[in-house]
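Let us practice reading a record.
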Amino acid sequence: MKKDWWLAVGITVLTVTLALGLIRLFAPQLLGGARDLQLVRASKEVPPFFENVFRRKDYESLEFIIQDPYVKRAKPLFPEEPPMGPHDILGFRNRAIPNIADIIVIGDSQTYGNNAILADNWPSQLQAMLSSKQPVVYSMAVGGWSATEYLAMFNKALLFKPQVIVVAFYTGNDALETFIQAYGNDYYAFLRLNPKLDARDAPKVTYPAPESEWWKVAFKDGVKTIFTPKLRYAANQDHPAIRAGYAIMVETGRLMREMAQRHPVKLVFTIIPTKELVYAAKTAQEGLESPADYATLITEERKNARRLADDLRKIPDVTVVDLIDPLQEAAKNNIPLYPNDTNGHPVAAGYQVIARTLSSIIEPFLSPRLEGLAAVRQDETRYQVFLIRDSQAWLVPAPDIARQNGWTLEDIPLVEERLIQRLPLAGSMDRVDAERFGPR
């Protein structure tokens, strides 16, 4: 009897201990434990965050592009080694990661800015051209990306609360690389619009183009470069995989718009052409005798770019910006837009044309630069007032202190909270100092 009693007690204690252990492990909040002291098991569902961010092998890697399972990325914290870098900790080409960005640009190496220092790539030149609005521009572009990666990154870009997102497609290889990713990576299986195709249907490409496929061009004004039409034709030929690639590009645009419409953001698409198409008008103007594969490329790429732009324009509430005409017009001058070799990325002058064309379209989408008093709604009845001065925000704790510094409190503009959040908080209007806090 006594032995049975002790056995029952032992079982009860063991059961309670086990139950408490399970609660502590899986639901610690029920025991009142501090959440910041809890341990989370490393797993596929919850990977250790800092171990990923500061993964040593990424920083010690000799590779410029790191192959991740879903979205390849550039090496994080890569230094500025002209004409590449610097990279932030996410591997994007920026000097810092902002909490709020006014403009996000998404693209491949044409947007990353190969052949140019950071200040001369088109996202940086775009920011400089819009200086009157003082926008924060953040680039999310990696060489080798295509429409699949642009889509994968789009919902991440929305976390920066941008006013504008620019997605830059590239006719030089996006269609082919989009097809390869969609049909070769199960992560993008939902983009396999043509079930009759598979990854093996991708056309074979020789890269880099052998010298036998080069066309060396010298224009009358002294501008020289080398075209590789056969290489660029690979992503523009009339081929089932390429047609599927362009169709997927349009579908990614439609899906991006679906995500964007839930946010106060303007979606802008643009299409960067190949170097060969940029110089096509100048080549024709000078009557240069072009090889057959160059003429075929120009015909097919122009057709693909026009169809892509037309299909993107059918998506509601998006803006599509043409770059072909401005680049072709600029190419007629004697300032080289591209290197004098086979490299298909622009130099600073070419990126300037892209930035200038986009800036005139984007400028009206940006909020005016704030100056003076502005209010942010806290709830239905309360507002917080700030003084905006020299691109900084000062908290206004009470109406009286604002009046004593010379302000009238009628008609204070009500602004989005994000417009204040993007500014550094300099302090509080805590005293009467009209020279510092008063109207100018």
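A brief commentary: The first strand starts at residue 65 and ends at 66.
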